[in-house]
Specification:
38% of the residues lie in helices and 26% in strands. The chain has helices at residues 8-37, 46-70, 124-129; strands spanning 4-7, 72-75, 89-95, 100-107, 118-120, 137-141, 147-157. It has a 5-stranded mixed β-sheet with strand order 5-4-3-7-6. Strands 1-2 form a two-stranded parallel ribbon.
Length: 159
């Protein structure tokens, strides 16, 4: 089974979410189901159906989180080698064509969120950046067949 590479921040986020689902959300949905049952006929009870759907979603997410955490490999960001880009690093790059600076945190695919500047080590840009040093230029082929060039400007710890 594939390891889920997580930063400590990602591990904590998933553990907290799992705890909340098991302790808080399960009780809330059980209460909703109980209240819906007390209304009588379940065959035409929309609240009951909605609560059962919510319960199913919660249990599916709990199962997913447990699977992620069971196969988690935590990257210790404080021990990251800042001589080259690795998982857990914050990297500042220059898009050579657009003359635009970008900043990303390299994370495992489970944690990736491009809207928050977290790119996966398995993404085309993330994969190309791994192992590079400040000053290196990388070329990344996009799914559309374009070649983009980036220069590594800085490598920092993300915390």
């Amino acid at each position: 089974m594939k390891k889920n590479i997580l930063t400590y921040e990602g591990l904590k986020k998933y553990e907290d979410e799992l705890q909340d689902l098991k302790v808080v959300k399960r009780k809330e949905v059980a209460q909703k189901i109980k209240e819906a049952r007390e209304q009588g006929d379940l065959s035409e009870n929309a609240e009951y159906d909605a609560a059962k759907d919510e319960q199913r979603d919660i249990e599916a997410r709990i199962e997913e989180l447990e699977k992620i955490l069971k196969n988690a490999e935590v990257v210790v960001e404080d021990e990251a080698n800042l001589d080259q880009v690795s998982i857990g690093c914050q990297v500042r790059i220059l898009d050579i064509e657009l003359d635009e600076e970008l900043e990303y945190k390299i994370v495992g695919s489970t944690e990736a969120d491009s809207l928050k500047g977290k790119i996966s080590n398995e993404s085309p840009v993330g994969r190309a950046l791994l192992g590079t040093k400040v000053g290196d230029v990388i070329e990344v082929e996009t799914p559309h067949g374009d070649n983009l060039q980036y220069r590594v400007l800085a490598i920092d710890r993300s915390n």
